[in-house]
Amino acid sequence: MFQPPLGKPWLLYGILGSSLLLNLVMVFDRDDASSTDEAPVLAEATADGEEVVFAEANTGELEVSAATAVAPGGTQATPETLTAEATPAAPVVLPDTEVGVSMAGWQVVDASLERNLAATFKGAVGEKGSALSQVYARLFVWDLDLRRDLQPGDRVQAAWRVTAQGKVEVGAARLHSQKHGRTYTAYRWHAPEDAFASYWADDGTEVPYRLVNSPLRDYEQITSLLKDRPTHEGMDFKTPVGTPIHTPFGGVVTRVNWNWGANGNCVEVKYADGSVAKYLHLSDNTVSAGQSVASGDLLGKTGNTGRSTAPHLHYQIEKNGKVLDPLEVHGAERRRLAGAALTTFVSEAARLDALLDGALAMR
């Protein structure tokens, strides 16, 4: 009988060892492959470069992300009640929910609130319901806590359409609140002196608040606030690339363009009170570290650099290691139309009311 060298079956050991090594290689290869199949996520960076990962919005645009606000009174609305389930079993339509009617490119929805806005709109209009609920919700977060104030049976109405770019746009909206015993309104209207359209209540008061002494004099919309997400540390302004940014307060530029991959073109200013402001995703900056700036000085222009999914400005304020809410630091205000502008707006609001009521009367 064959006796292996030194009494050991070396050939057998070698075969077994090779087999074990091959199995280990196959396992690691399989793990690597499965990790590359994960669904991609979008990420925005904090001012210091830390990634903040969040799910992609329905249309991939910043403007349809679920908007949350801390109003000047301190009321917070969270996105928890605004998000529809990823794979609902089937749209639920209440007996008193009415499906939208097409009217010269606009559709009108009139629904009794179900579990939340997302479920209600999805049940009423189908595929576009989630995006519509997010646009609609953003109009009323300034006045209502959408998690606590909404009640089953509240009436939601909207005249809406899909633009040529595939985005959901609301022309007029009403929310009849049982808790507060009143109807909140919002009409899309472009004031003569403004660069962009905004939303106005029926009395000519602007629906969204604006920062006092804002770093942007013109912007389309505030699309994200400090408490929208636990890891989001600033306020986002949707605005075209190249919009001028002016420092609201005097101070010293402490650094520029740190962590380029995450923040893109960026500027940091230490204000006179010791707070530090960070401006991210710029297309260009016009200052350098160590430079003193006075209130109103140009810092740069907005852009879409770094980890950014659409043109916007991320504005963040910190003091003593604590992130501050720009609404509280700056204060907030609402504009009120007057004179000829108010007269014109009232006429437009009446036309939009007719669109809402006329379409509903045709049912």
Overview of the molecule:
This protein is an alpha+beta fold and 363 residues long. The chain folds into 2 domains: 44-50 and 213-333, Glucose Permease (Domain IIA), CATH 2.70.70; 70-209 and 336-361, Nuclear Transport Factor 2, Chain: A, CATH 3.10.450.350. Helix content is 22%, strand content 29%. The protein has 6 helices and 20 strands. The strands form 4 sheets. Strands 10, 11, 12, 13, 14, 15, 16, 17, 18 and 19 form a 10-stranded antiparallel β-sheet that branches. Strand 14 and strand 15 form a beta hairpin. Helix 2 (117-125) packs across helix 3 (129-140). The protein is elongated and about 60 Å long. Residues 22-102 have low confidence and may be disordered.
Number of domains in the coordinates?
2
Structural class: alpha+beta
Order of helices and strands: HEEEEHHEEEEEEEEEHEEEEEEHEH
- Compute the separation of the termini in Å: 98 Å
Low-confidence stretches: 22-102
Furnish the topology, listing elements before pairings.
Blueprint: H1 10-35, E1 42-45, E2 51-54, E3 98-103, E4 106-112, H2 117-125, H3 129-140, E5 155-162, E6 168-177, E7 182-189, E8 198-200, E9 210-211, E10 221-224, E11 235-238, E12 244-246, E13 251-256, H4 260-263, E14 265-271, E15 276-285, E16 292-293, E17 298-302, E18 312-319, E19 322-324, H5 326-330, E20 332-333, H6 339-361
Antiparallel strand pairs: 1-2, 3-4, 4-5, 5-6, 6-7, 7-8, 9-20, 10-11, 11-18, 12-17, 13-14, 13-16, 14-15, 15-17, 15-18, 18-19
Helix pairs in contact: 2-3
